[in-house]
C-alpha cells in the first residue's frame, strides 16, 4: 500500500454494534473527503474470532495488558496493585461465564414458574441460586431506578406492589448472562414491549410498568451487587473466574 494505515484495538461493552454504528455516521465525512481527492476507508472485524486473528497479526502479547486492578492482600493487610493480565489471554478463553439475577415479581412466578424455567433452559441459562423472598422497603428502593424514585406516586406504587407478596429470586449463569437476560425481558413497559416484539417476556407476563413481571440486573456491576444482596450464603455452582474476582 502507498499510504500508511492506522490500526486500533478498541474495547467496550457491545463493541461490535457500537463501532458499526459509529462508522455509519462517518459516511458523510467519507464523501466529503473523497471529493477533495482523499478517501477515508474503514475496515472492522465483525466477530470475536476475526478480532482475535487480526489482533495477533498487528499486536504482541505485551501490547495487550489490562489496567492493574486494586485487590486486597491478606498477607500484607492492605490494598495493592494486582498483577496485570493479558487481554489476549481473555480473547483466547472466549466468552466468560457470568452470573446475573432475575427477580420474578409477586403474582407472576406462582402462575407461570414452570414455563419461565423452561424458557431459561431453552436460552441455556443454568439456575445456580433460587429463593423465595419477602422484600422489605429498603431492598425495593435499591432495585428501583433513579427515574422511578423521582416521582413519589410512581415510587409508592412500585413499593406497594413489590412488598405485597412473595417474590422468587433466581441467580442465573451462562456466557454473556447479563445482556442476554435484559434482551429477553425487553422494555419495562409491557405495552411498549408488546409493540416491539410480543416474544419479550415482559410483553407476555406484564400488565403495567409496575406489574411488569420481572426485575433483571441491568449491568454486571449491579448483578454482583444483587448476588451479594440476595445470596450472601453463596451459590450452588463451581466458582468461575469472574465470581472469584468479585468474592461472591
TrEMBL record:
Residues in coiled coil: none
ATP-binding found in the keyword field: no
GO molecular function, one term: kinase activity
UniProtKB keywords: Kinase, Transferase
Ranges for domain Nucleoside diphosphate kinase-like: 97-237
Signal peptide annotation: none
SUPFAM superfamilies: Nucleoside diphosphate kinase, NDK
Family: Belongs to the NDK family.
Name assigned to this protein: NDK7 kinase
Organism annotation: Brachypteracias leptosomus
